[in-house]
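Chain A, query sequence.
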Amino acid sequence: MDPSLFRALSEPNRVALLIRLGRNGEPTTVTQAAACCPVDLSVVSRHLAVLRAAGVLRAAKQGREVRYTVSPDLAASLRALADALDACCPPEAPPDEEGTP
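Chain A, predicted structure.
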């Protein structure tokens, strides 16, 4: 898994943008995506570029606009990470009724 994914998701506005695009369910312009964040359109555009470079988003140019969608590979990557963590670090068993593990 590429560390750029974690860097891309370490910024709250980028996470908000990802959630917005995921919930939208269709290709979304920068202007439409910007509705989620209290930052300038140019900042939103830079955030989307970081997410795209990390493989979180895909972009397709349609006329003069670029429309973004969540990469279908993202969920698979996150599932693989969760599976790896489950395999190496299983959750502790709950304590029995007497309070001992």
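The domain at 3-87 is CATH 1.10.10.10 (Arc Repressor Mutant, subunit A). Strands lie at 28-29, 57-62, 65-70.
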